[in-house]
Design a protein that fits this description.
321 residues; alpha/beta; seven-stranded mixed beta sheet; 11 helices; elongated; binds 6-O-phosphono-beta-D-fructofuranose
Length: 321
């Protein structure tokens, strides 16, 4: 049966480049003579019947804008069978033949339920700053978030070195140390704490004290939010070294801003691929790019723990400090 109409939504934490992905889905759908419906506020909006047809012009001038014009939400109701059944009712009511789901692990979880349990064709497009989705080297938004955080760390370094202080900088990543590692290495930080790796606080404080004796007085320690709070880490450092510390929590700044070229282009490629798969009658898959080649994996695989280059990055960082 030819697909006539698809729905597109963004769900979970917003990520720069989501708009470029929406634009790509809508325009690719039109290219294949498929109508695209925008679903607002993720699965919550689906349940609440917040939908609108999107045409070529309704996605004009959004490729370079951060956030998501469709808005996004986290939707605990969608985890329940009642919530899903209500969503399926709306999908049928609007004659939607398939869904392009832009988001991270939670969004993909929704796609697994809809495709496997309710037989609704779903294709996942990886949109999250955490870069913790399998089946793609990078997720849409990750590159922008890293560069945003790096820019902030460069500025922090100016004051760190001028006043010879220890700074603890907290970056996003509840379960993922991706941003922390990238900015720690790229920003020349002295140490980094991530959720995936055990950390020896006593060893670090010993290094700080030793460094201090040698005349090294400026330190930047990056902490991923999943590995601890900057305030607690800073207190532990002060307790163990008797040295003064300052903290910065970068927070949601990392989710905003214009997407980098890398994120816009990844989003543009993956939106097209997702629509091509839906038009081809496929379901339960996630699109990505690995080593410059478009890849398609099962949604179930996409949400498994991603192998990262944590150790390589950490070792390089420690060699260079
Ligand atoms: O998943 C993206 C992310 O930014 C995580 O890095 C972070 O832990 C979380 O979302 C924060 O979520 P919220 O905006 O709902 O507080």
């Amino acid at each position: 049966m030819a697909i006539k109409r698809i729905g597109v939504l963004t769900s979970g934490g917003d990520a720069p480049g989501m708009n470029a992905a929406i634009r790509s889905v809508v325009r690719s759908a039109n290219y294949f003579n498929i109508e695209a419906m925008g679903i607002f506020r993720g699965f919550a909006g689906l349940i609440n019947e917040e939908l609108k047809v999107l045409d070529h012009h309704s996605v004009s001038n959004i490729i370079g804008r951060g956030g998501t014009i469709l808005k996004t939400a986290r939707c605990p109701e969608f985890l329940t069978s009642d919530g899903q059944s209500r969503a399926v009712e709306i999908i049928k009511k609007y004659n939607i033949d398939g869904l392009a789901l832009i988001g991270g692990n939670g969004t993909y979880g929704g796609g697994i339920a809809l495709s496997k349990k309710w037989n609704i064709p779903c294709i996942g497009i990886p949109g999250t700053i955490d870069n913790d989705i399998n089946g793609t080297d990078s997720t849409i938004g990750a590159d922008t978030a890293v560069n945003t955080a790096l820019d902030a760390i460069d500025k922090i370094r100016d004051t760190v070195t001028s006043m010879e202080r220890i700074f603890v900088v907290e970056v996003m990543g509840r379960d993922s140390g991706f941003i922390a590692l990238q900015v720690a290495l790229g920003g020349g930080a002295e140490d980094v704490l991530i959720p995936e790796r055990k950390f020896d606080m006593v060893r670090m404080c010993h290094d700080i004290v030793e460094g201090n004796i040698r005349g090294k007085v400026s330190w930047i320690v990056i902490v991923a939010e999943g590995a601890g709070h900057a305030t607690d880490i800073a207190k532990q450092i002060t307790d163990l070294t008797s040295l003064e510390t300052r903290i910065v929590v970068l927070g949601h700044i990392q989710r905003g801003g214009a997407p980098t070229a890398k994120d816009r282009n990844l989003a543009s490629i993956l939106g097209t691929e997702a629509v091509r798969l839906l038009a081809d009658g496929q379901s339960g898959k996630a699109v990505g790019v690995i080593s410059d080649k478009v890849t398609v994996v099962d949604l179930e695989f996409a949400v498994t723990k991603k192998e990262t280059q944590n150790e390589i990055i950490y070792q390089a960082l420690k060699t260079l400090t």
